[in-house]
Amino acid sequence: MDKKQKKLKIACLFTFVLIVLFSFIIIYQISFNIPDTKEEEPQEEKDDTFKLTLSSSLKNETPVNILVLGRPGYGYSGQDLTDTIILAHLDPAEEKAILISLPRDLLVKIPNTDRLTKINSLYNITGIDGLKRKVEEITGLKIDYHVLIDLVVAQEIIELVDGLNIYVPQDINDPFFPGPNYTYETFNLSAGWRYLNGPEAIRYIRTRYTSPNGDFDRMTRQQQVITLLKQKVLELNLLWDFPIYLKMFNSLKNNIETDLGIIELKNFWQIARNIKYNQITQLVIDKKETKLLIGGQVPFGEQMASVVYPVTGQGNYDEIKKYIKSKL
Fold it and tell me: What residues make up the domain containing 22?
């Protein structure tokens, strides 16, 4: 992969983190009528505690770690599998960001047991607390906040804005796209400009078996769709299109989980907007780029599954933590 392609993919990955934050700010502003701090100061009648908290938050220059997760959501095969796992390290003082991507097939031990599983299924087994503890154990970084978003919300909003015009860079021929009731179906899409409705767009961002770079290409397609979706949402008129905004709010509210409050969201959004793409570092913990993992086959029930685990041994994350620390 050349430098230009790598920069583009890093930009797309960072866009994903920004759009997740952006989505929260939009729904909070619509539902609670909260003004943007850049355009309007808090009114005098506002509570003084709110003013103090907001002011202190904006001046805080301590690095923050946000765990950003994406899952298929209700109605999809593997609805609670967190196939997108990104730990975003934001450093407001240095105006830089580091995005640490963990592979969905990373073999990990389930907390408080001797059983092994893939990290993308840990949320389904232990909930968010178990997944956060495991990511902290792997990376050596304390997680301050988390954001979990369902892909189903993207389908609903794409339908509300009447679909997306998307440039497909190469033909897609996936005979193993997940279908209902644990079946497979064929998904084909020709290269070029294509108009995709909600279900088609979701297939486009979920297919993974026909791309040269596998999950990395899939992640790039996700960022492409989310960026186009952001543009179409911003083109809506808040007055005339208010019913659409209201439906979007209900969809987002029901398909997003986070422990971030509105103060932190607005703060992080402003921090992230000040970070230039050349100040973004992407760390992919994998076999190819960092050579920190190796692959193998392990039995899960009656089937064998492909997994990756540290070259230093299963459960030994010393080299991964050392590598991440050297990049901070």
Answer: 3-153+238-327
